[in-house]
């Protein structure tokens, strides 16, 4: 008899004000299933012993104490629920009725968290670094690359006893001493890619969901064998993994891939089998029930994992890495990299994103080879890997007063009668003004220099000439401000520097 594998598809109830962005894995504890969906309207929970087509969700938001309505990960033990949000780690001890939120003030490395796991009173929070609490969340200690993590961008975490597995953007980091130090595994150890999104372990078998396939180790993570579309995976981009015995479940960007032979071969399931979307971000299984966290909802199958009716083969989905950097080249690891479906629209981070220097705001994002910048929170179409550099509006504006005298001409100290010529590298002076003291009302991007009169002298003077004013261009073609007159509002060669050139007239 042929058994058809089907999924029941669940989305937030009509009127919940959200578009499902990404769903996290579902954890089952005891006889109740706790479903977590990342939606713009918060965290949804379901308590039910079995999947039903008419199942509904109760949604929890900041009104219930969540740190943010964007939730990236969840874990539950009994009546204690842990939610990894974009605004901290929210903990409920009453089954999700109310939450207490933990932030960087409690020791978290960052308030934007991507995963959470707990064993007893020990809590592991994945974000900017791996934050570990040994007192139920009262306080955290954050572990970073200084503890040998592969990257400060941690996307997932799992723990067994004192062994911790951290899925980072720079490899799989394993600690056998509770997080004090880590050993990092990369492609040199057989991983499909150094960018990891999920990890799971049973005994000495470790499963790593990477951007290049599902990597499996049978020796505690010393070496890995990588599985790809050649082994039946729906896509090489894996976001999550779970295993029971010889059955392995891989959440990919091309469907839910299931293996019954320990990962040697996979059968892939897509929307034709009832999945809410073929973009699967997490998976969990309990008995014969499989839960898939998809871009279109939580999909639940209760037919025992039968694989006799897989979905038809369709083109795989590809994604492109989007990287964000500071002007000095440092990567902003708390928000970078992001992996975007190729040829799709993507909203850039806003002006307060965590990719700026103290006191500054993001005025835009630049890319190589382009002399203009995209605005903060702007929409771009991602067609390939791309690096964006933050254009920062600093709190201090530099005013450069350039004597504007050719290197071959003499320029003596202003006011002196027989001084030697000033060297070329000394023919400009820089003043520093607080932006808040010189900003045009309503235009923080436009310095107002009305309270800054054009100086009557330059750092040096060419013999036989007198200073008559200042211009924003060295050739004098820009508007001239006469000596003693207030400068017109002007933007210089960057948002943080305004350069004025002396204008001379024969004495």
Note down, in words, how this protein is organized.
By secondary structure, the protein is an all-beta fold. The chain folds into 3 domains: 294 residues, YVTN repeat-like/Quinoprotein amine dehydrogenase (Methylamine Dehydrogenase, Chain H), CATH 2.130.10; 75 residues, Immunoglobulin-like (Sandwich); 111 residues, no CATH class. Helices cover 0% and strands 44% of the residues. It contains no helices and 45 strands. A 5-stranded mixed beta sheet has the order 39-37-45-43-44, with no helix packed on it. The protein has a 4-stranded antiparallel beta sheet with strand order 1-30-29-28, with no helix packed on it. A hairpin with a 2-residue loop joins strand 29 and strand 30. The radius of gyration is 29 Å and the shape is elongated. The N terminus is likely disordered.
CA-CA gap between termini:
105 Å
Rounded to an integer in angstroms, the radius of gyration calculated over CA atoms is: 29 Å
Q: How are strands sequenced across the largest beta sheet?
A: 39-37-45-43-44
User: What's the number of structural domains?
Assistant: 3
Name the CATH superfamily assignment of the largest domain: YVTN repeat-like/Quinoprotein amine dehydrogenase
Structural class: mainly beta
Number of helices, where a helix is a run of at least 4 consecutive DSSP H or I residues = 0
Stretches where pLDDT is under 50 for at least 5 consecutive residues are 1-55, 304-316
Largest sheet: 5 strands, mixed
**Do you know the CATH topology of the largest domain?**
Methylamine Dehydrogenase, Chain H
The share of residues in helices is under 10%
Strand content: 35-45%
Mean pLDDT: 79
Number of strands: 45
Please give the CATH class of the largest domain: Mainly Beta
> Architecture of the largest domain in CATH?
7 Propeller
Query: Which term fits the overall shape?
Result: elongated
């Amino acid at each position: 008899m042929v058994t058809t594998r089907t999924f029941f598809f669940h989305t937030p109830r009509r009127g919940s004000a959200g578009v499902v962005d990404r769903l996290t894995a579902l954890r089952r504890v005891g006889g109740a299933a706790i479903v977590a969906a990342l939606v713009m309207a918060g965290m949804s929970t379901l308590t039910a012993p079995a999947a039903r087509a008419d199942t509904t969700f109760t949604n929890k938001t900041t009104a219930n104490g969540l740190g943010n309505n964007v939730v990236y990960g969840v874990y539950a033990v009994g009546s204690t629920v842990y939610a990894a949000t974009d605004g901290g780690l929210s903990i409920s001890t009453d089954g999700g009725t109310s939450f207490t939120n933990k932030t960087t003030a409690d020791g978290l490395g960052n308030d934007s968290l991507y995963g959470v796991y707990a064993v007893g009173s020990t809590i592991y929070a994945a974000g900017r670094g791996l934050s570990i609490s040994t007192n139920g969340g009262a306080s955290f200690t954050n572990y970073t690359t200084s503890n040998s993590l592969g990257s400060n961008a941690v996307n997932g975490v799992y723990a067994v006893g004192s062994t911790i597995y951290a899925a980072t953007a720079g490899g799989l980091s394993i600690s056998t001493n509770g997080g004090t130090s880590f050993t990092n595994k990369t492609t040199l150890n057989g991983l499909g890619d150094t960018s990891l999104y999920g990890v799971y372990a049973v005994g000495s078998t470790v499963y790593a969901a990477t951007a290049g396939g599902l990597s499996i180790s049978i020796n505690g993570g010393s070496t890995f064998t990588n599985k790809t579309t050649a082994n039946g995976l729906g896509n090489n981009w894996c976001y999550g993994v779970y295993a029971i015995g010889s059955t392995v479940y891989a959440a990919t960007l091309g469907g839910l891939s299931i293996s019954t032979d320990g990962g040697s071969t996979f059968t892939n399931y897509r929307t034709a089998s009832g999945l809410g979307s073929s973009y699967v971000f997490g998976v969990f299984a309990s008995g014969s029930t499989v839960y898939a966290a998809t871009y279109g909802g939580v999909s639940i199958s209760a037919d025992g994992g039968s694989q006799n009716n897989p979905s038809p083969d369709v083109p795989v989905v590809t994604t492109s890495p989007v990287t964000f950097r500071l002007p000095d080249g440092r990567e902003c690891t708390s928000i970078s990299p992001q992996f975007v479906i190729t040829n799709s629209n993507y909203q850039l981070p806003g002006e307060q994103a965590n990719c700026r220097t103290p006191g500054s705001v993001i005025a835009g994002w630049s890319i190589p080879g382009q002399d203009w910048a995209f605005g903060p929170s702007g929409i771009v179409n991602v067609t390939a890997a791309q690096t964006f550099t933050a254009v920062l509006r600093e709190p201090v504006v530099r005013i450069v007063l350039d004597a504007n005298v050719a290197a071959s001409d003499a320029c003596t100290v202003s006011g002196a009668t027989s001084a030697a010529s000033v060297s070329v590298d000394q023919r400009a002076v820089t003043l520093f003004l607080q932006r808040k003291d010189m900003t045009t009302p309503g235009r923080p991007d436009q310095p107002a220099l009305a309270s800054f009169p054009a100086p009557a002298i330059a750092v040096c003077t060419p013999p036989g000439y007198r200073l008559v004013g200042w211009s924003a261009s060295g050739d004098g073609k820009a508007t001239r401000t006469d000596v003693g007159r207030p400068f017109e509002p002007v933007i210089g060669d960057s948002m943080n520097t305004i350069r004025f050139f002396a204008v001379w007239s024969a004495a």
